[in-house]
Amino acid sequence: MSVNPGSLECTCYKLRQVTRLVSRAYDAFLVPCGISIGQFGMLETLKRMEGESISRVAHVLQMDRTTLTRNLTPLKKMGFVVMQTGSDKRERALSLTTAGKRALAAAEPKWRDAQTSLEQQLGKRTLKSLNDAMDATLGHLGGDPCQ
Amino acid sequence: MSVNPGSLECTCYKLRQVTRLVSRAYDAFLVPCGISIGQFGMLETLKRMEGESISRVAHVLQMDRTTLTRNLTPLKKMGFVVMQTGSDKRERALSLTTAGKRALAAAEPKWRDAQTSLEQQLGKRTLKSLNDAMDATLGHLGGDPCQ
DNA sequence: TCAATACGCGTGTAATTACACGTATATAAT
DNA sequence: ATTATATACGTGTAATTACACGCGTATTGA
C-alpha cells in the first residue's frame, strides 16, 4: 500500500513538494544572513561566472532569462551585484561587488549548517541518492547546465 | 573532476534547478489545458481530500498555508474550486466543482504525456531513483505529508 | 552598403512562495 | 462563566517563476 493512495505518482509533484520543504529548511538557517537560499545560490553562481551575461548565467541556473533579471533586482538593491555593458552592447556583464562577496562568505557557514542538518535528517546514503538523482536528471535534460 | 567545479554541492540548489527544469517541461505539455502543473497537482490533491481544510491540504502539499490560499484564487476564479464553512466556522471546506473535476480529467492525458516524456528522457532506472529519492526525503522530513 | 535575420535584454502580466501580523472562532483553565 | 490559550484563516509585503511582446544591437546576405 502506497503512502499516497490514489495519487498519480507525478514526479514533478514530488519535486515541487520536496523543493518547498527543503527550501524552507535552508531559508530558516539563512535568516540571520538576510538572504534566501535562492539568493545564496545565485551569488555562488555569479562568483563562479564573473563577467558572464544574464542568459548564460540563467542557463546554468536552469532559470528563465527573465526570471534571473527579476531575481537580480533585490541583489542589486542590496549592493551585492552590478551589471555592466561590455563590447557587445546587448549583453550585461554580471559581477559580484565586494559587499556581495562578503555577504556570500558570511552566509557560507549557515549554508553549511543547513546542508549538514539535511544530511543528519536524511542520512548519508539517502542524501547521496538524492544528489545523484538530481545530477543524473540535469545530465539527461539540462543540455549543458553545469560548469 | 566534478561537472560543477568550485560549487558547494548544495542539495537545495540542485533541487531548485531540477524543479524549474522539470516544471517547465510539464507546463509545456499542459498548455492546451489552460492550467499549470502546480494547479494540476492541487486539483489532484483536492480530489483526494474532498472537504478538507486549507491547513490540512497545505500540509499534504508541503506548502505554506498562506501559499495555498493564494494559489486557490485562480482556481476559484476559473470555477474549479469552492470553499465552504462547516461546523467549525474557522475552517474552510475545500472541494472541486464539476467543472474542476472535468478540467482535471481533461488534463490527465497531457499530464501522462509529460510523465512519459520524462521517463523516456531519463530512462526507467533514473526516473525510479528520482522518485525514490523524493519519497525517501518526504518520509524523513515531511512528518506526515502524504495520504 | 543595406536590408533581413538573429541575438540579448527589459517589461507587462500573472501565478507561486512564504513570513509577519492581525482577526475570528474554538478549547482549556480557573 | 470568564479569561486565557490555541487554532484556522486572511492580508500586506516581497521575492520567485516564466510567458508574450517589443526594442535595440549584432551578424549575415545580396
Describe this structure in words.
The structure is a homodimer of 147-residue chains. Chain A is mainly α. Chain A has a domain at 12-110: Orthogonal Bundle (Arc Repressor Mutant, subunit A). Chain A has helices at residues 11-30, 37-48, 54-61, 65-77, 98-122, 124-141; strands spanning 81-85, 92-96. In chain A, a hairpin with a 6-residue loop joins strand 1 (81-85) and strand 2 (92-96). In chain A, helix 2 crosses helix 5 (98-122) and helix 3 crosses helix 4. The mean pLDDT of chain A is 93. Chains A and B meet through helix 1, helix 2, helix 5 and helix 6 of A and helix 1, helix 2, helix 5 and helix 6 of B. Chain A binds a DNA duplex (30 and 30 nucleotides) through helix 1 and helix 4.
SSE layout:
The structure is a homodimer of 147-residue chains.
Chain A: H1 11-30, H2 37-48, H3 54-61, H4 65-77, E1 81-85, E2 92-96, H5 98-122, H6 124-141
Antiparallel strand pairs in A: 1-2
Chain A binds a DNA duplex (30 and 30 nucleotides) through α1 and α4.
User: For the largest interface in this structure, which chains are involved and how many residues does each contribute?
Assistant: A-B, 61 and 61 residues
Oligomer: homodimer
Report, as a whole number of angstroms, the end-to-end distance of chain A: 42 Å
How helical, in percent, are the residues of chain A?
55-70%
For the record, what is the CATH homologous superfamily label of the domain at 12-110 in chain A?
A: Winged helix-like DNA-binding domain superfamily/Winged helix DNA-binding domain
Low-confidence stretches of chain A: none
Q: Rg of chain A to the nearest angstrom?
A: 17 Å
CATH architecture field of the domain at 12-110 in chain A: Orthogonal Bundle
The computed structural class of chain A is: mainly alpha
Written as H for each helix and E for each strand, in order along the chain, the element string of chain A is HHHHEEHH
Q: Please provide the count of β strands of chain A.
A: 2
Q: Outline the biggest β-sheet of chain A.
A: 2 strands, antiparallel
Q: Which strand-content bin applies to the residues of chain A?
A: 5-15%
